[in-house]
Structure formats: structure tokens, C-alpha cells
Design goal:
Length: 426
């Protein structure tokens, strides 16, 4: 289903007065403090986050999966769902495809549909973490790192196929995430696994077009529980450096051991010009894939503070590929994504309010108290009216989540698609 602009305008109508009061109050406060409201709004309008094609249906755990019904059963319906989210939020202007789950049947039709909904194709994602139908080799004991050359060659060929598919859609990046690793000590030779991975990535890198990025994602554990071949940002950076200037590290918020200082990782990678992409989610214990900002909103803000600093001060770092990477197990996936988008925008808007000059001065004076005051003054500002205004300026909903519910979109989707459809995904 496709949402009409008039539906959103009508939904905004009764929320307009309260919004206006809240926005005027915030705008006057920020203007007095010297902020350029129009600049902040235009930065927020430009900020677009890709929705992965696997996140539009209910996810699950190894214990089970509970559907919300009306799930998209093909790529067209997945893109329509991203279109719904984008129409309400104006923040989800891209989709990130997972191959082979979402190989287009008709490239032109898919491109036309996406463009009619104002959606671009962001990074394409390869999959060597599960065996595909009719595959000759198995990834049970690894893919790019496997001791078998035939397995490695199959995995390399798959990644080259993914580049080819992305190229036809207008994607500009390949994301490689490996499940490779070992579950028991002694199972793998660490050096052999790393060297094999390095050599395989170099082969894939040869197929990366000139204006593309290759993004190398890391993860400390799961599905392998003793070791992963690319376990942290250091391993990813080493591999990216070996491949060349189009290869970068990708940071996924959930792919860190507890209490890792992710904002510092982000900062140093940008200084080195090697941060290429970013995956949003939140977690309490590990790779929990929860709604961004639902557990540690202050950490998200601190990460954005470094991202904003890097975007302003590190021209050596490329534009980033932003994506939500979560599994929606007990919330309506579309509502969950809308909540994540709101939390991400909120963290970004607050980071834009950090007075960088004053912070630098306080840092130079070793005024630690002032440093904290500056950061927390920005963090404690309720920027939600600013986000409402941003959406309103470009035809979005004042409250995307309320609009989604009041327009009864899930029931419309169930009406169209029924209760039996199952989306491919995590
Ligand atoms: Mn990820």
C-alpha cells in the first residue's frame, strides 16, 4: 500500500497547535543562545537512514518467532513498506538489500517503484553465513576464511555477484559481514583463518567499482562463540588497510563487548579516514538488536557527538552509509523502525547543539566540570519539536508513530497481504 500526502496532512491537523507552541518555545530559547535553527533543520532533512530489507517482517530467536501479519512477502512489498516509513518520517530514504534473499526479478520495475517512493539503494549485503539452495559447498565451517579453497572461491564469487546486482540498482557499497570463526578452542588456526580472509577480501576488492566502498563489519561473537575471524575494529581496519582506499570499517552498535567505548572507536576511525558505515541498534547484554536509543540513549548521543565532530573536521573520511540493523521480535517491525529513526534523529539533533568551540576551550583549560555541563546541556534539551518541524517542512507526520496507528496501517497491510505471509530475514 502507498500512503497519500493528504492522509498525512489530515492527520497532522489536530496536532498542529500543540506542535506550534512547543516549537516556538524551543526555537526562541535556542535562537537566544545563538543557534541557527534553519541550519539544524536542513541538516536533519539531509540525514537519511537506510532500512534493511530483512527488518520489515517480525524477527525471532532460536526459541520461536511471532508474526505481526501483513508482512511483505517479496521485494516490491518490502520497498512499499520502506515507502510507508519514509512518507511518515522523511528519514528513511534508502533501502539496503540482502542477497540472495532479495534479488530483483525485474530491475527496471524495482528501480521505478523505489524512485516513485523517493527511495535510493544503499549498501548491498552479501550472505555467506548460511547455505543456499543448490550450492555445491557448505559454509558450516566458514566462508572467506575456510581451509577449503573451493569454499572460499564460492564465497568470493557470491560477493562479486552481489556487487553486480547492486551495480544494476545504483548501490555504491558492498557490506561484508562474516559469521566465520570457531566455537571451540583449537578448532581453527587463527593466523590461517585471518590470512585466508585477507586474501579472499582482496579478490572481492578487485571487483569493487571505482566509485564504490567496501565495508568490513566486525563482531566479537555469535554465531561462533569462541572466536570470530573479524572480531573487532582493529581486525577490520587491518583488513581494510590491506585491501585499499575503497575499503572501510563498518561499526555496528551491537557488535561490541559490554562497556566498549564505541564513541572513541568512531572518533579514531574518522581521524584515520576509515569509517565507512554505521549500523544502529541498542543492547543490554550483547547483540540484542533492540530499538536504537531504547536502552542507552546517552551513549547514542555521545556517539553522535563524535560523528558530528568527524563530519565537520575529518574531510579525509567519506560520507557514511547509515543503516538500522535490528531484529523486531515483539514489536510491530514498522513501529519499531519508526521509534529507532526518531531516537537516531534525536541523538543527531542534540549532538548538533553541542557548542564545539566552548567545549574545545573547556578542554584546553582542563575544566572537566564545564566539559560535562556543555555535553549535558545539549543532551538535556528536548529537541522533539525540532524533529516535528523538520518533518512538517517536507510533508511528513508530526508524530509518525501516532499517524501509523491512527491511519490503522498494520490492519490495511493485513487486509492486502493476509496473515500467512512471511518475510525473509533474521
Ligand atoms: Mn550490522
Amino acid at each position: 500500500m502507498i500512503i497519500q500526502k493528504e492522509q498525512i496532512i489530515a492527520n497532522n491537523k489536530e496536532k498542529l497547535n500543540l506542535h506550534k507552541d512547543n516549537f516556538d518555545f524551543l526555537a526562541s530559547k535556542l535562537t537566544k543562545k545563538g543557534y541557527d535553527i534553519e541550519m539544524i533543520i536542513s541538516r536533519l532533512i539531509e540525514f537519511q537512514i537506510a532500512i534493511p530489507s530483512w527488518a520489515l517482517g517480525a524477527g525471532g530467536t532460536r526459541f520461536g518467532r511471532f508474526s505481526f501479519y501483513g508482512e511483505p512477502s517479496n521485494l516490491e512489498e518490502k520497498i512499499e513498506d520502506v515507502g510507508l516509513i519514509h512518507a511518515l518520517t522523511n528519514t528513511a530514504g534508502a533501502v539496503s538489500l540482502h542477497i540472495p534473499w532479495d534479488v530483483p526479478n525485474d530491475y527496471n520495475a524495482i528501480k521505478e517503484l523505489a524512485s516513485s517512493l523517493n527511495i535510493k539503494f544503499d549498501a548491498v549485503n552479501s550472505n555467506t553465513f548460511q547455505d543456499q539452495k543448490d550450492a555445491t559447498e557448505t559454509y558450516k565451517y566458514g566462508s572467506l576464511s575456510n581451509t577449503s579453497q573451493a569454499v572460499r572461491e564460492q564465497a568470493i564469487a557470491h560477493n562479486l555477484d552481489v556487487i553486480n546486482i547492486g551495480n544494476q540498482l545504483g548501490s555504491k557499497a558492498l557490506t561484508v559481514w562474516l559469521a566465520d570463526g570457531s566455537t571451540f578452542p583449537g578448532q581453527n588456526n587463527f593466523q590461517t583463518a585471518f590470512s585466508n580472509t585477507q586474501d579472499s577480501l582482496k579478490e572481492i576488492y578487485k571487483g569493487i567499482p571505482a566509485d564504490w566502498k567496501m565495508l568490513i563489519e566486525y563482531k566479537p561473537y555469535e554465531p561462533n562463540f569462541y572466536s570470530t575471524v573479524i572480531q573487532d575494529w582493529g581486525a577490520s581496519l587491518m583488513l581494510a588497510n590491506e585491501c585499499g582506499e575503497k575499503a572501510f570499517t563498518l561499526v555496528d552498535l551491537g557488535h561490541h563487548l559490554p562497556n566498549s567505548n564505541i564513541e572513541q572507536i568512531v572518533s579514531i576511525l574518522m581521524l584515520k579516514g576509515k569509517l565507512g558505515g554505521f549500523h544502529f541498534n541498542d543492547s543490554k547484554y550483547g547483540d540484542d538488536d533492540l530499538t536504537a536509543g531504547s536502552i542507552k540513549p546517552y551513549a547514542l548521543f555521545l556517539i553522535f557527538n563524535e560523528l558530528v565532530y568527524g563530519m565537520e573536521n575529518n574531510p579525509q573520511n567519506p560520507d557514511l552509509s547509515w543503516m538500522i540493523d535490528a531484529s523486531h521480535n515483539i514489536k510491530d517491525p514498522l513501529e519499531d523502525i519508526i521509534q529507532s529513526l526518531e531516537a537516531i534523529q534525536e541523538a543527531y539533533a542534540k549532538a548538533l547543539l553541542v557548542d564545539q568551540d566552548a567545549l574545545k576551550e573547556a578542554q584546553n583549560n582542563n575544566d572537566i566540570v564545564k566539559c560535562q555541563e556543555i555535553l549535558q546541556d545539549a543532551y538535556r534539551t528536548d529537541v522533539r519539536p525540532l524533529l516535528e518541524k523538520t518533518r512538517l517542512n517536507v510533508g511528513g507526520a508530526i508524530s509518525p508513530i501516532m499517524a501509523y496507528r491512527e491511519l490503522d496501517l498494520r490492519n490495511h497491510l493485513i487486509g492486502e497481504r493476509g496473515k500467512q505471509t512471511i518475510a525473509t530475514g533474521l
